[in-house]
Automatic annotation (TrEMBL):
<keyword id="KW-0560">Oxidoreductase</keyword>
<dbReference type="InterPro" id="IPR057326">
    <property type="entry name" value="KR_dom"/>
</dbReference>
<feature type="domain" description="Ketoreductase">
    <location>
        <begin position="3"/>
        <end position="181"/>
    </location>
</feature>
<dbReference type="Pfam" id="PF13561">
    <property type="entry name" value="adh_short_C2"/>
</dbReference>
<dbReference type="InterPro" id="IPR050259">
    <property type="entry name" value="SDR"/>
</dbReference>
<dbReference type="InterPro" id="IPR020904">
    <property type="entry name" value="Sc_DH/Rdtase_CS"/>
</dbReference>
<dbReference type="InterPro" id="IPR036291">
    <property type="entry name" value="NAD(P)-bd_dom_sf"/>
</dbReference>
<keyword id="KW-0521">NADP</keyword>
<comment type="similarity">
    <text>Belongs to the short-chain dehydrogenases/reductases (SDR) family.</text>
</comment>
<protein>
    <submittedName>
        <fullName>3-oxoacyl-[acyl-carrier protein] reductase</fullName>
    </submittedName>
</protein>
<dbReference type="GO" id="GO:0016491">
    <property type="term" value="F:oxidoreductase activity"/>
</dbReference>
<dbReference type="InterPro" id="IPR002347">
    <property type="entry name" value="SDR_fam"/>
</dbReference>
<dbReference type="GO" id="GO:0032787">
    <property type="term" value="P:monocarboxylic acid metabolic process"/>
</dbReference>
Length: 249
C-alpha cells in the first residue's frame, strides 16, 4: 500500500508540524496550502530530515482546484490514504457586527473545504481498503464569544466526522476529529493583535487558565494526528478528542 498523506493548510502552524510528523512516521506528504510557494519551508524541513514531500497550491473551498490537486498528488506521490483537513481561517466578530462575507468564508474554508477534500480523497482510500481521515475541530465548537461563524463550522466538522466514520468504516477507513484548545500559531497571534494584547502576556494569561499550566504548541496536535493515523488506531472512529491541556478550553 502507498503511504501517502495530504495535510491541508500545511504552510505553517499546526498543519506544518503535522506534515513534518507524518513524514517522520514514514509518509510521503502532500503539503497543501493556498499558494505552493508558501509550502517551501515545510517541504524543505521534511526533505532535510530525509522525508519526501510535495508542495501543492490549492484553495480547499474550490471544487476544481481540489480535484486537480488530489489528481496531481495521486499521480506524483501515489494514492493518498491519509487526509488531514486542517486549513482554516477566522473572521471573528460579535454576531451583530458579523458580515455575510465573514460568515461565508469561514463556512467555505472549514466545511466546504473539508467536504471537497474528503470527497476527492476517499476514492483512493476505498480502493486501498485502508484510510485515515482527521478533521481539525476546536474547543470553540462548544461556543465562543465573537466566533458564531467559526464555532458553527467547528461543531459542523464533528457531525461530518461521525458521518464519515459510519459511511466509510466498512472500507477500512476511520475518521476522527481533534479539537485543540489554545495553540500558539499565527492564527492565535492574530487574535491577540485584534484584541490589542501583547503576545507574551496574552499567552501567559491563556496558560494560567489551562490545567497543565502551559499553552499548546503545534506538535501537541501533530502527535494526536499521528496516533489517529497509526495502524493500531483502526478501531477508533467517529471520535472527537479535545487536546486542550485539560477537560475544557
Ligand atoms: P494558521 O497558522 O492560520 O494556518 C492555517 C493555514 O491554512 C494557513 O497556512 C492558511 O493559508 C491556510 N489556509 C487558509 N485558507 C485556506 C484555503 N482556502 N485553502 C488552503 N489553505 C488555506 O492556523 P493554525 O492555528 O495552524 O490552525 C490550523 C487548524 O487548527 C485550523 O483549522 C484551526 O481552525 C484549527 N485550530 C487552531 C487552534 C489554535 O489555537 N491555533 C485551536 C483550535 C483549532 P494563508 O496563510 O495563505 O491564509
Amino acid at each position: 500500500m502507498s503511504k501517502v498523506a495530504i495535510v491541508t493548510g500545511a504552510a505553517r502552524g499546526i498543519g506544518a508540524a503535522t506534515a513534518q510528523r507524518l513524514a517522520q512516521d514514514g509518509f510521503a506528504v502532500a503539503v497543501l496550502d493556498l499558494k505552493a510557494d508558501d509550502c517551501a519551508d515545510t517541504v524543505s524541513a521534511i526533505e532535510s530530515a530525509g522525508g519526501k514531500a510535495l508542495a501543492v497550491g490549492a484553495d480547499v473551498s474550490d471544487a476544481e482546484q481540489v480535484q486537480a490537486a488530489v489528481d496531481r498528488i495521486a499521480a506524483e506521490l501515489g494514492p493518498p490514504v491519509v487526509l488531514v483537513n486542517n486549513a482554516g481561517v477566522t473572521r471573528d466578530n460579535l454576531l451583530f457586527k458579523m458580515s455575510d462575507a465573514d460568515w461565508d468564508v469561514v463556512m467555505n474554508v472549514h466545511l466546504r473545504g473539508s467536504f471537497l477534500m474528503t470527497r476527492a480523497a476517499q476514492k483512493h482510500m476505498i480502493e486501498a481498503k485502508w484510510g485515515r481521515i482527521v478533521n481539525l475541530s476546536s474547543t470553540s465548537a462548544l461556543g465562543n464569544r465573537g466566533q458564531a461563524n467559526y464555532a458553527t463550522a467547528k461543531a459542523g466538522l464533528q457531525g461530518f466526522t461521525k458521518t464519515l466514520a459510519i459511511e466509510l468504516g466498512k472500507f477500512g477507513v476511520t475518521a476522527n476529529s481533534i479539537a485543540p484548545g489554545f495553540i500558539q500559531t499565527e492564527m492565535t497571534k492574530a487574535t491577540a493583535e485584534r484584541i490589542g494584547e501583547e503576545w507574551e502576556s496574552y499567552v501567559a494569561k491563556r496558560a494560567a487558565a489551562i490545567p497543565v499550566a502551559r499553552a499548546g504548541i503545534p506538535e501537541d496536535i501533530a502527535h494526536t494526528v499521528s496516533f489517529f493515523v497509526s495502524e493500531g488506531a483502526g478501531f477508533i472512529s467517529g471520535q472527537v478528542v479535545y487536546v486542550a491541556g485539560g477537560p475544557r478550553n
